[in-house]
């Protein structure tokens, strides 16, 4: 009988993010794991206690000493392996993760000067007051401290490649067919520009929070301390945590801001997916050569000549998984039945996998780009084999002259179509056609000097617009 892997210690990971790819996504564990959730809950609970006592919200209770504030703030800071195990033990008794957090804190206040104030822990709070703020802190940390720096580093890589290859001419392919030439750098700059817009959108998203009780009415607060300005107390606490206060909610903070963040990250991922498929195609055309040393390991298990573009293929797959998860999060988190249901509790626990697959894709694209060499000769040969792309230039000059009143230049589009459509035209054939048109000398000389390699318009200069978004 085969061994049961479920019984092996240490436990075998179920998902590739916690197994095969653990090293590449490990930084997210500090922000989006279950342990990180509980640490963030500890932050919210202890800071709420400090906020209430130092703000003298509850009549008759004293403010805290510096040592007591330090004691409270040390509780989440010291939450490590032993604390995780202890919280799990308490939760097995409470069968409630947030209540277990409350009891965990009270254990640490026992025997201290704060023991008489232990009932202030979690006072006036429903679980969602703690959870919505904890998730906001977690997501802010994961996005701003882990995901966004990786994303911006990829954009930096892409901008560097765009600038290095700004003047390297390349045949374009619209609808997969040979088209007006461009430069490799300009095409890379397009992606850098698109991704840069998303990099600016994502940190601009507000991250909202609330602490207003079981149905968002401050009912328990107002009946317990009717003289307090509870909206001000809630707003200043949420802002103290570095979040934006949401004044109108049900039991839950509505999660609309989360949907906005996830939609932006998903969109960024789809642009990255487009980049990965385009680079893959350029590799297949021979415009890029891959260095096996940079890709790592064996290129193909049976064909020794091959270096497979695995980094970009891996990125595609991970971006598809990430996008699907982010879409689900965006679609489901904005809905809650009446004043509360628990579907968001399970859904939010999948933020980690959603960002993990995205982070893994970013790492693979960066490694893939770092392992590429530009083959300008291959691009030049491709251009040399497609002189017919100059048909656009010739007919555009003819049309310009025609509307200016020059005779003998009728039907320029149709004449170039007859010459080029379905036919391969070499340099000699194109120059003979140009010479037969009877163009004014200046225009004729300009067109005769034109080649597919030089017919790139302002492509190189356009790369300079990357500086605009950094200004």
Task: Describe the secondary structure blueprint for this structure.
Layout (H helix, E strand, L loop, with lengths): L21 H4 L3 H4 L1 H21 L11 H12 L3 H14 L2 H13 L17 H38 L4 E6 L2 E7 H21 L3 E2 L9 H6 L5 H11 L3 E2 L10 H30 L2 E3 L1 H4 L14 H23 L10 H6 L2 H20 L1 E3 L1 H9 L6 H13 L8 H9 L6 H9 L5 H9 L9 H4 L9
Helix pairs in contact: 3-4, 3-6, 3-7, 5-6, 7-8, 7-15, 8-11, 11-13, 13-15, 17-18
Q: Could you characterize the architecture of this molecule?
A:
The structure is a single chain. With 471 residues, this protein is mainly alpha-helical. It has 3 domains: 25-126, Fumarase C, Chain B, domain 1; 128-375, Fumarase/aspartase (Central domain) (Fumarase C, Chain A, domain 2); 385-459, Ribonucleotide Reductase Protein R1, domain 1. It is 59% helix and 5% strand. It has 21 helices and 6 strands. The chain has helices at residues 22-25, 29-32, 34-54, 66-77, 81-94, 97-109, 127-164, 184-204, 219-224, 230-240, 256-285, 292-295, 310-332, 343-348, 351-370, 376-384, 391-403, 412-420, 427-435, 441-449, 459-462; strands at 169-174, 177-183, 208-209, 244-245, 288-290, 372-374. The chain has a two-stranded antiparallel ribbon. A two-stranded parallel sheet has the order 3-4. The chain has a two-stranded antiparallel sheet with strand order 5-6. Helix 5 (81-94) crosses helix 6 (97-109), helix 8 runs antiparallel to helix 11 and helix 11 runs antiparallel to helix 13. It is elongated. GO terms for molecular function: N6-(1,2-dicarboxyethyl)AMP AMP-lyase (fumarate-forming) activity. InterPro entries: Fumarase/histidase_N, Fumarate_lyase_CS, Fumarate_lyase_fam, Fumarate_lyase_N, L-Aspartase-like, PurB_bact, PurB_C. Keywords: Lyase, Purine biosynthesis. It is an enzyme of class 4 (lyase). Pfam families: ASL_C, Lyase_1.
């Amino acid at each position: 009988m085969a061994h049961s892997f479920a019984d092996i210690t240490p436990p075998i990971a179920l998902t590739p993010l916690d197994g095969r790819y653990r090293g590449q996504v490990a930084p997210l564990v500090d922000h989006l794991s279950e342990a990180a959730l509980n640490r963030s809950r500890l932050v919210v609970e202890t800071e709420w206690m400090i906020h209430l006592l130092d703000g003298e919200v509850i009549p008759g209770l004293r403010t805290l000493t510096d040592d007591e504030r330090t004691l409270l703030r040390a509780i989440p800071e010291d939450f490590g392996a032993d604390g995780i195990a202890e919280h799990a033990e308490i939760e097995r008794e409470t069968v409630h993760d947030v209540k277990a957090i409350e009891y965990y804190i009270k254990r640490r206040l026992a025997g201290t000067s704060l023991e008489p104030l232990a009932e202030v822990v979690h006072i006036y709070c429903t679980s969602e007051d703690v959870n919505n703020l904890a998730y906001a802190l977690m997501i802010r940390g994961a996005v701003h401290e882990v995901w966004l720096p990786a994303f911006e580093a990829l954009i930096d890589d892409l901008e560097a490649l765009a600038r290095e290859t700004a003047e390297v001419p390349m045949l374009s392919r619209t609808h997969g067919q040979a088209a007006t030439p461009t430069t490799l750098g300009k095409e890379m700059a397009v992606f850098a520009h698109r991704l840069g817009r998303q990099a600016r959108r994502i940190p601009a998203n507000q991250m909202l929070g609330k602490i207003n009780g079981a149905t968002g009415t401050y009912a328990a607060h107002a009946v317990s301390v009717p003289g307090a300005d509870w909206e001000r107390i809630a707003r200043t606490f949420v802002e103290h945590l570095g979040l934006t206060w949401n004044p109108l909610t049900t039991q839950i903070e509505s999660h609309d801001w989360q949907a906005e963040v996830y939609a932006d990250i998903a969109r960024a991922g789809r642009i990255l997916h487009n980049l990965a498929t385009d680079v893959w195609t350029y590799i297949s055309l021979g415009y890029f050569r891959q260095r096996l040393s940079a890709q790592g390991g064996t290129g193909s298990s049976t064909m020794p000549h091959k270096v497979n573009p695995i980094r970009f293929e891996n990125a595609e797959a991970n971006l598809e998984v990430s996008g699907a998860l982010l879409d689900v999060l965006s679609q489901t988190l904005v809905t809650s039945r009446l004043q509360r249901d628990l579907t968001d509790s399970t859904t939010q626990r999948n933020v980690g996998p959603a960002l993990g697959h995205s982070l893994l894709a970013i790492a693979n694209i960066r490694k893939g780009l770092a392992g590429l060499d530009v083959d300008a000769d291959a691009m030049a040969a491709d251009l040399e084999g497609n002189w017919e792309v100059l048909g656009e230039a010739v007919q555009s000059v003819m049309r310009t002259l025609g509307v200016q009143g020059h005779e003998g230049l009728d039907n320029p589009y149709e004449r170039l179509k007859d010459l080029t459509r379905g036919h391969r035209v070499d340099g000699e054939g194109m120059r003979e056609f140009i010479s037969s048109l009877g163009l004014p000398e200046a225009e004729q000389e300009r067109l005769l000097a034109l080649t597919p390699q030089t017919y790139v318009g302002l492509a190189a200069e356009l790369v300079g617009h990357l500086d605009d978004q950094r200004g």
